[in-house]
Amino acid sequence: MDLQTMTYLVVGASFALYIGIAIWARAGSTSEFYAAGGSVHPITNGMATAADWMSAASFISMAGLIANMGYGGGLFLMGWTGGYVLLACLLAPYLRKFGKFTVPQFIGDRFYSQSASTIAVICLLVASITYIIGQMTGVGVAFSRFLGVSSEMGIYIGMGIVFAYAVFGGMKGITYTQVAQYIVLILAYTVPAVFISLQLTGNPLPQLGLGSNISGTDISLLQKLDQVVTDLGFSQYTTATAGSTLNMFVYTLSLMIGTAGLPHVIMRFFTVAKVSDARSSAGWALVFIALLYTTAPAVGAMAKLNLHATVNTAVGLETAADGSMKVNPEVVKAKADVYATEASLVYENRPDWMKRWEKTGLLKFEDKNGDGRIQYYNDKTKNDAAKAKAEAAGWKGNELTVNADIIVLANPEIALLPNWVIALVAAGGLAAALSTAAGLLMAISAAVSHDLVKGVFMPNISEKNELLAGKISMAVAIVIAGWLGLNPPGFAAGTVALAFGIAASSLFPAIMMGIFSKKMNKEGAIAGMLAGLFVTCFYVFAHKGIFFIKGTDFADAIGGPNSFFGITPEAFGAIGALVNFAVAFVVDKMTKEPPEHIQHMVENVRIPRGAKAVDGAH
Amino acid sequence: MDDQGKAYWSATLGLLGKILAIWFVCSFGAGILFAPALNGISLGGYPLGFFFAHQGSIYIFIALIFYYAKAMGDIDRKFDVHEE
Fold first, then answer.
1. Which pLDDT does position A224 carry in this prediction?
2. Inter-chain contact A283–B65, Cβ cutoff 8 Å?
3. Are the beta carbons of A343 and A337 closer than 8 angstroms?
4. Do the Cβ atoms of B45 and A603 come within 8 Å?
5. Closest chain B C-alpha to A274 CA, distance in angstroms
6. From the CB of residue A24, how many other CB atoms can be counted at a distance below 10 Å?
7. Chain B residue whose CA is closest to A220
8. Which long-range contacts (CB under 8 A, 24 or more apart) does A364-368 make?
9. Spatial contact of A151 and A16, defined as CB atoms under 8 Å apart
10. CB contact under 8 A, B66 and A293
11. Fold for domain A3-299+418-606?
């Protein structure tokens, strides 16, 4: 069966499964719509949370990012997993005990203030909507690359599928489709990784393969990679940091508290039956996330070595007769000269997968020195030895441009895996994008129908009508998300920093103080949220333009890019959180204590006993 | 809050302090601040600092959450505030 037919079959089957679940899991009450009925098993919820959390970016782009960044890419690995420790110990069990449907409702009730709740709704909407743009474009990308349909068509199909299970099933439909989507995406991610690890190291587990020797040699894979990339003028793979150590530190912290503060993740923990389930469920979520997150660095490093080996025979992997990569132990051990003329691959002899990906524009070759061979190296290196060797060899600049996404998307083709694996990767990319999009849509529609419609405008709305309002706002949110996916604003890439920045600087500190500081009052919380939000937006906008409008950036006015101790805007959320805590503390000391009943409420939230099913009463 | 309640909360905070200390030491410590020093030590083919940043921290995070869930359950029962 040819690849195209196989891909249609596998993706079609996965979609049929999601629709089947949608029909089975319709929501008949607000409890089912917002909290999946409140009795999801902790392991089931962990799996759904993992799919909810792992987005198109985690699936498609992260391994490539790590391959490019080397050691410094660890900030994504630690940041996006370490947040679950904070979520498990500081937020999830207490919010579950509180027992309401949404995050803004907790903030509004705890700080006895409609304004606090409204600020939280705004933060939630901005964070979730900016985040969803990337998911919808991810759906379009997966469709156009693998199924040969236009990315617009892909987004319409994606919207249709999400509509089917999110509008009718609410959180209940989303939960069970996310479980199915997790299984699809994790298989799609790990199967190619196992094959590549076997080919390079003989060890089937990529996590162990990354720390193993290359087959038939006593040279470790990372050692070889370090040697090859430094020879070619790149930074050493295992030590390259992302900016300064301080920046890496703050960036990691920002991703951790941003992760813990993202409403669509927190919301998942309202679906379990008990406080103790919320604790263990966070652990299960991290187990399922770790399956992908510990595989990603292996995929990144191995694919990077593979790629260098494909275009440079001195690396020591050779292309076997059938086209697959095979280790040549003698060459690996010899550490042959990568600048030797015949080491560079002759362009005409390039493997088929390179030809295919050249058509997509993700891979580009330009023969700068006209020798018909591919020279792939760092032509802007500060390594003088490498520079001198390249010049001596007659290299006139790097000739191969590789989009980071190829690392995952082309992985099965590079390793010559069967067509069904390639088809599975397409289905996996779609599962990752759709599951995260659905979780975000759930957070958005709950904030609109529960916190705004019921909380502010129509407090006496009947349950039936609130359910209807929830479904309508879900449908509207899908249309808006689809529109944004079809017309991605030029600033789309920069907005992810804003989503994490907002979650880290406004929502996380407010929730945490609501639980851990009994005396924190509404004045302190509101001032803190606004201050955290303001400094974070100020710093991000200074670099990326006010509301991301081109030409309105003012980084020079605040002392140049990254002027705050060399910290990049993406990493600034943790600083915003610190400002939030500090301002809240000072304002709290100057204003009067929260009322007695609020302090009792906090005491009650802190103990598990008496936890009941989540409900929506305001 | 009565004495029993205060004792429960301080036991909780004590556990949290321990958990977060390990969380900090393995990621920000071994994975970032001390990574260059630890890279001198090898774990199989992994330089140790690199290992913590790309693998080790994640495994420790998982262990921490399950330990927390279990230890918190014990504290709940000890102070008789667990769920029925």
1. 93
2. yes
3. yes
4. no
5. 8
6. 12
7. B45
8. A364/A400, A364/A401, A365/A399, A365/A400, A365/A401, A366/A399, A366/A401, A367/A399, A368/A396, A368/A397, A368/A398, A368/A399
9. no
10. no
11. Sodium/glucose cotransporter (1.20.1730)
> What does each C-alpha distance from A35 to A78, A424, A613 come to in angstroms?
29, 31, 9
> Which residues face A345 on adjacent strands?
A374
Residue A615 three-state SS: strand
From A238's Cα to the closest Cα of chain B, the distance in A is: 6
| E strand or H helix at A402 | strand A400-402
ipTM of this predicted structure: 0.96
pLDDT, tens digit, for every residue of A214-224? 988 899 999 99
pLDDT band at A582 (very low <50, low <70, confident <90, very high): very high
Q: What is the least distance, in Å, from the CA of B75 to any CA of chain A? A: 11
Task: Name the residue among B68, B75, B67, B71 with its Cα closest to residue B5.
Answer: B75
- Residues 6 or more apart whose CB falls under 8 angstroms from that of A198 comprise A204, A209
What is the mean predicted confidence (pLDDT) over A19-47?
88
CA distance A519 to A368: 67
Dist. CA A553–CA A71, nearest whole Å: 31
Token output for B14: 């004590």
Please give the structure tokens belonging to residue B18: 């321990």
- Is residue B41 less than 8 Å (CB to CB) from chain A? no
CA neighbours closer than 13 Å in the CB half-sphere of residue A178: 35
**What per-residue confidence (pLDDT) applies to A452?**
86
pLDDT at residue A558, rounded to an integer: 77
How far apart (Å, rounded) are the C-alpha atoms in residues A595 and A559?
Answer: 44
Listed by start position, the domains of chain A span 3-299+418-606, 301-407
* Spatial distance between the Cα atoms of A203 and A207, rounded to a whole number of angstroms: 9
Question: Distance (Å, rounded) from C-alpha A256 to C-alpha A503?
Answer: 10
Q: CA A221 to CA A234: how far, in whole Å?
A: 17
Q: How far does B4 lie from chain A, in Å, by closest CA?
A: 12
Q: Tell me, what amino acid is at A571?
A: A
Chain A interface disruption, residue of B65, B75, B78, most A CBs within 10 A: B65
